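With this grant's support, we have settled on a layout for protein records. One resulting record is reproduced below.
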Amino acid sequence: MATTKLTPAQLEAKRKAADALKNSGIVIQPTTPTTSNNVNKSTGSSVIKKIDSASAKTLLDVAIRDSQYAGKLSPAMIQEFIDAFNKESVAQAKTISGIIQTRLKPGATPDDIASATANAISTEFPNYFNAKTFATNFVWSKINFKDKTAGGNALKALQTAQDVAHAYGSTSIADATVQAYALKIAKGEMSLDDFKAIMQKEGIKNYPQFADAFKNTPGATMYDLAGAYINQMANTLELDPNTIKLDNPLLDRALRPDGTAGKLPAQSLADFNRSLMNTPQWENTTSANENARSAATGLARAMGMGL
């Protein structure tokens, strides 16, 4: 029988398919031929080697190191991982096996079965069961901020996510939701820019008066857009601008007089300044006291007291 010479592209595809099969951990075994409509047909089954305790611990140690999981790797956790690993590997193997069996021709050899499986994995299931990925996902499922299992990466992501949420004035977002986003960021499932885009939508919902400003100033946070108001408030009330938050009642009323309804525009800076000067806080400022002294001196002079 003449042998068909493969092209370089076909050889490369075959090599990738073989690598995919090898990396998947699948062992292909032909089963007993079955007869259907008087035609002999070999079927194949995909068998995953079940993981043992030592291998499970090795995978988990790497995942724990990479994720900076702060919890303890207990025997119970290892066994839970083994059970989950074996269950998932068998389930995915059955899926592949079912698909391959429908594609095999009568009289298929073990090599045919292995080749068909490898090609299916490399083309249709490129992310077929990966032990390292499975271990990583397993460990991340154990990380949360309540029981202090979150390590440095997750904690840093949480602080960043909280800062971003506050900067956009996303007060309607629950802490648990921000924490969930933080875990996704730490795990690499979501970029910080993606999270900022979500928070911007929340910012527009909470501050509809600034919808156009958000649109015309890409990347700006609500804190950025409120910068002139914050500086005005800091100057008038003699405050550190870094201590003024978006939920400050005086600032909030200026930015959205009718709350999230958005029908009334934000106050002008001049009106905002006048309102600030009518507050008890302003009466305690140096400017207020100097104005009072100047007024008293002017009055005394007007009354001929020679001051």
